[in-house]
Amino acid sequence: MQILIIILQIAVLLAIVLLHVAYVTYFERKIIGHMQVRMGPMLVGWHGLLQPIADGIKSFFKEDIIPEQADKPLFMAAPVICLVTMLASLAVLPFAKGWALADINIGLLFIFAMSSLASYGVILAGWASNSKYTFLGGLRSMAQVISYEIPMGMSLIGVMMLAGSLNLTEIVEAQGTSLFSIYLFPQIIGFFVFFVAMLAETNRVPFDLPEAETELVSGYITEYSGMRYAMFFMAEYIGMMVMASIGTVCFLGGWNGPFAIPFFPPFWFILKVYGFLFLFIWIRATLPRYRYDQLMALGWKLLIPLSLLNVVLTGLFKILAN
Amino acid sequence: MGLKLNRGQILMTETTTLDVPVSQGDEDKYLLKLGPQHPATHGVLRVDIELDGETIIDCDPQVGYLHRGFEKLAEHRTYAQNIVLTDRLDYIAAMANNVGYCEAVEKLLAIDVPDRAKYLRVMVCEMSRLTGHLLWLATHALDIGAMTVFLYAFRERETLLELFAELCGSRLTTTYTRLGGVRQDVTHELMRKLEKFVDEFPACIEEYETLIDTNRIWLKRTIGVGTISGEKAVDLCLTGASLRGSGVDYDVRKHMPYAAYDKLDFEIPLGETGDTYARYRCRMEEMRQSNFILRQCIEQLPPGPIVGDDAPDLVMPAKPGRKVEVDTPARKALIKLIDDRDVYMEGDVYVATEVPKGELGFYFISDGMGRPYRMHIRSPSFIHIGALATMGKGVMVADLIAIIGTLDVVLGECDR
Q1: Do A119 and A141 form a contact (C-beta atoms < 8 A)?
Q2: Contact A240, A157 (CB under 8 A)
Q3: DSSP states along A210-221
Q4: CA distance A311 to A154
Q5: How far apart are CA A226 and CA B321, in angstroms?
Q6: What is the pTM of this model?
Q7: Residue B131: closest CA among B102, B97, B83
Q8: Max Cα separation, chain A?
Q9: At what angle do helices B188-212 and B115-144 cross, to 10 degrees?
Q10: A7: alpha, beta or left, given left = phi > 0 and alpha = psi -120 to 50?
């Protein structure tokens, strides 16, 4: 009985998240469209509202091409690895008090582990396609993930020190319910580092080098088509949502808001996540792309020292407060 | 060697080894053929690059994927018919090519162009310079990753293309000029629309500049990238903004004025550093100057005929169905064109004009027939792609894309 309930919960969560993923693409296309003096999708449904569903059906029925030279098992496994690891990290997210599938005590660490695993999918996709562009994309992705995992993890050390826990629910509760007690203010350096590393971790502009369209055609997904392509796409958007959720949990006070919403406790959580997603999209419409060496320099020379400084400052802050 | 080949004979035996020029066995190097189907090569350019990690060791541009044999084709068509071919050179700014071709033929045939046509030519030239530069800005920014500029620039380009369509019926393949003038006169409404555009355009340039001019990532990606000194740029025969970005003051419009450029007031913006950012600034300023020239054209446009009397060209009847009078000078000249070789002079001529990409030159050898004996096109894109081999060495892949963008090449003109 217990297992059935959990399976049902997983199914509901998956359905809701995948629906959100579909509509985040719509959200993105509409917002970028309006920022770029055009309308975005307009044809399918009212103001293009059914566009994500049409896209889903299209990619489902498209021919799935596997290149002759590709390493078939790895080629087929790569998008699955990406998607599954991203979905797995959803399990520990607390959408509201008690609304987490698995409220484990190392939630933050689990998410890091999963997002690092997802980069295996990217690297394997680049390698197994046996194409030069995908290979370069995979290489770039590998270097980028290694460089940005470090500042990202370190930027959250401050949060862990303040909350005294790795459990996401406890981190939210440690911040209290008032607007001014959220960790954004004491951890402003940490938030900055986290935000930049988050963009890099999810391969978004200005760090979208692994799939830099004008340099590497489509990077590691060049050879993919149909549903496998869509799986990478979904993994990227779930990744964005997971990262936005961590930002919400660790810096913005999770599900707590100015006032409680009855019957729908995750309201503020979802609102904050969408706020993050809006920032992602805004940045995509605004910024050009970094060059590979500049990306590395930014990660190693600026973000890592900054996050270390943040750890030191947080320690001092804690000692002085005591 | 006198090797006899029988049908179906296999030349290579198992012991034969191919002498491949690619460094084989050297595992540090990685040969990547960038293009011809690649989103950032502005058409069908292929660049063979040898990579060490992300750094380009060797860069070898390959052209010819869009070769249509215009120069040979031109030898079999009359001078008037060849105008159509020039549309397809730099299809981003077809008007400027039309003008360049006609200026050259008119010099060869010693045809006078009336004043109004000269001003109209300058007008369409500058409009096409704007369309060319806007497309350059759009794609260059897109190559570097700034996506929004692309759509903003296309908004204004659309207005200009609509004006072209109103002027000559076509947005891209304009064929607007005629030997000895232009094909159609402007209407009041068109001039009003153009004036409105000229009034609004400076604000649009400022809008693009707010998007990228001081953007830190844009600066990082352009300053010090693809730097080329003035002397080196001259050695590589660069022209246009690619040359002026290095501080060399050379513009055909100013130094060898054609059409009505000698009567107009404008400046040649120069860069200093010769890097991608300097060239970017140069072209942005050029757009402002073009806008200024357009304003002067609107104000100074003189009345009068748009085609000279001695133009050996077919002038379209003003209304469909109206009979063309056989004894107009133009009609007579057209009839002469086919069978009378006295109309044409023998000799050769080279005339250069300043198109958005740089110096576009037409070289003709005429033997007095109604068709060119030889036509050679000095296309700036071809020469700029030649410079890519030098500029692309030792940079990173992302910089190569930026350099292709900043050289402003179009493959229709390069391969012609």
Answers
A1: yes
A2: no
A3: GG-HHHHTTGGG
A4: 8
A5: 56
A6: 0.84
A7: B97
A8: 65
A9: 30
A10: alpha
Distance from CA of A186 to the nearest CA of B (A): 27
How many angstroms away from the CA of A291 is the closest CA of chain B? 6
Which residue of A289, A293, A295, A296 to mutate against B (max B Cβ within 10 Å)? A289
Question: Residue written as tokens 């199914």?
Answer: A11
pLDDT tens, N- to C-terminus, chain A (322 residues): 888 988 898 898 889 888 888 889 898 899 989 988 888 888 888 888 888 889 888 888 888 888 888 888 888 888 999 899 988 888 888 888 777 778 888 888 888 888 888 888 888 888 888 888 888 888 888 888 888 888 888 888 888 888 888 888 888 888 877 777 777 778 888 899 999 998 888 888 788 877 766 677 777 888 888 888 888 888 889 988 998 998 888 888 878 877 777 777 788 888 889 999 999 889 888 888 888 888 888 888 999 999 999 999 888 988 888 7
Determine the Cα–Cα distance for residues A188 and A195; give it in Å rounded to an integer: 10
Sketch out chain B's domains with CATH numbers.
70-317+327-415 (1.10.645.10)
**Which residues pair with residue B58 across a beta bridge?**
B50
Evaluate whether B230 touches B247 at the Cβ level (below 8 Å).
yes
How far, rounded to the nearest angstrom, does the alpha carbon of residue A158 sit from its chain's CA centroid?
A: 20
Contacts 24+ apart (CB under 8 A), B287-290: B287/B129, B287/B130, B287/B133, B287/B134, B287/B201, B287/B205, B288/B202, B288/B205, B290/B126, B290/B129, B290/B130, B290/B133
Which of B140, B157, B397 has the most A C-beta neighbours within 10 Å, making it the best mutation to test the interface with A?
A: B397
What crossing angle do the helices spanning A72-89 and A226-251 adopt, rounded to 10°? 30
Cα→Cα distances A172→A83, A98, A249, B160, Å: 27, 12, 6, 56
- Do B360 and B414 form a contact (C-beta atoms < 8 A)? no
User: DSSP class of residue A47?
Assistant: G
* Contact by Cβ (8 Å): B177, B79: no
Closest partner CB to B401 (pick from A35, A206, A215): A215
Indicate the residue type of A101: L
